[in-house]
Amino acid sequence: MAKQKKDDNFLLYIPRKKHLTFEKRDGKIYLIFYHNKPIEKFLRWLVKKPAVSDIELDGLGSRVWELIDGENTVYDIGQKLLEEFGKEAEPVYERLIMYLRYLNRRGWIAFERGKQE
Description:
InterPro entries: PQQD, PqqD_sf. The protein is α+β, with helices and mostly antiparallel strands and 117 residues long. Helix content is 38%, strand content 21%.
């Protein structure tokens, strides 16, 4: 994550996708993971796991993933979620920030410091 200064507004940060292998099925986003590193291959053989796995994002999570386009700020994404999901998304910014930080900790997105006005 970009180094956040004390007077920065996190809502003006711009999330960017780092994990680029995903697909949309039945209106939901699936993040695709290939397990082809040598240690992963060995562990896969040991426990009989597939070479490819995926994670299904729920409806709200899928929409957030679609809105992460490198231009929308956290604030913009929250506003679009409110327009589309209404009360179902409430409290939108608390949930959105927690979700984006989770995606960031997993290494699937990164943040760029937006214009702090």
